[in-house]
Amino acid sequence: MNNMTAEHFTPQMYLDYYTQHKNISIADIGVAPVVVVSWGRGVIDEMAEATGAEICPHWMYDARYPLYTGQVQNRRVSFAQAPVGAPGTVMMMEEMIACGARVFLGLGWAGSLQESAPVGSMLVPTSCIREEGTSFHYYPEEGATLSPDQRLVEGLKSAAEAEGARVATGPQWTIDAPYRELRSKIAAYQAKGVLGVDMETSAMYALGRFRGVSVCNLLVISDELWSEWRPAFRSDELQAATNLAQRIVLKYLEEGLA
Question: Considering the entire predicted model, what is its pTM?
Answer without folding.
Answer: 0.96
